[in-house]
Amino acid sequence: MSAPEGVRCMLMRGGTSKGAYFLGQDLPSDPGARDELLLRIMGTPDPRQIDGLGGAHPLTSKVAVVSASQDPDADVDYLFLQLGVDKAEVSDRQNCGNLLAGVGPFAVERGLVAAQDGRTPVRIRMVNSGDLATATVATPDRRVDYTGSAEISGVPGSAAPIVIAFAQGSGPLLPTGRARDLIDGTPVTCVDNGMPTVLIAASDLDVTGYEDPEELEADTALGARLQRIRQEAGRLMGLGDVRATTVPKLSLLAPPQHGGAVMTRTFIPVRCHTSIGVLGAASVAAGLCVEGSVGQGVARLPETGERLRIEHPTGFLDIDTAVDNHPAADDGTAVDGAAPVARGTAVVRTARKIFDGTVFPRPA
Known about the structure:
It is an enzyme of class 5 (isomerase). The protein is α+β, with helices and mostly antiparallel strands. The protein is built from five helices and 17 strands. Strand 12 and strand 13 form a beta hairpin. The radius of gyration is 20 Å and the shape is globular. The two termini are 12 Å apart.
């Protein structure tokens, strides 16, 4: 299929990321042709992405493909695609909780979900994992309103709050079946509460966990060690060979500095995130609550029922999470050795429409 002259596109900031949003029907149905077109739209491969929409960083080289869902529990399907910057790569191996913040407004703007007067819930199936979430969008007078007083770290100004509630995932919270594993001589906790993530105490890697992301990225010995841990963790988590993928993420943990629960530095997987992804934060939060995890000796957990604040290089992200460390059978009886279960997760994010129109891909 030849590429169209122009493609309908909405560029949005979702959380602390930015990406191009498309209706599935506006892109080629063949995944290979779709990916080839998106690479040309985003300007990949090129370290500056000078000839496309990409912003020369993984956090701004993202795509959301949204379609009406056939799932009775969802209104729309959301496929996230992570595009490389200097490499012609397109990955669907992970979700993106930041771009997820823009899916609800986009679905209403494109008429996939009818706006209610006040607030509109949009039920979303995350195609990458099959997990479900509900995003509640401000729609006064049945129109999406992006203005409001909600502020999130890493984004200037304020915007309308978008409350995202995640349904309980279908997979295990602890993919290895253990609260702790030893990889490359380092204690880790492998957790998946929406994003496969490996938790590591920063002190076990001979860093403080308070360094600037650029400083951590420049530490070649640390980078090599982290990649060894990531590759073995991927195998233990059932992800196979992860050398060419972006999951699992790695989150270094240190005691909080600003009254939160924990300070983080997250690798995605090679670059160090200037903040933290929504689903990555959800996994960190759940992992901290697991008895015996590596975070238990580092984090300062709030009282039961209080929001858990994850600190990161440019601020913080608040997560509502509940982990049942001793789940019982349906009849209430105790189950010996039952694995911890994440019972619910919710987060407040914001999004903003930057432009809506036609994007013209670089010629093939």
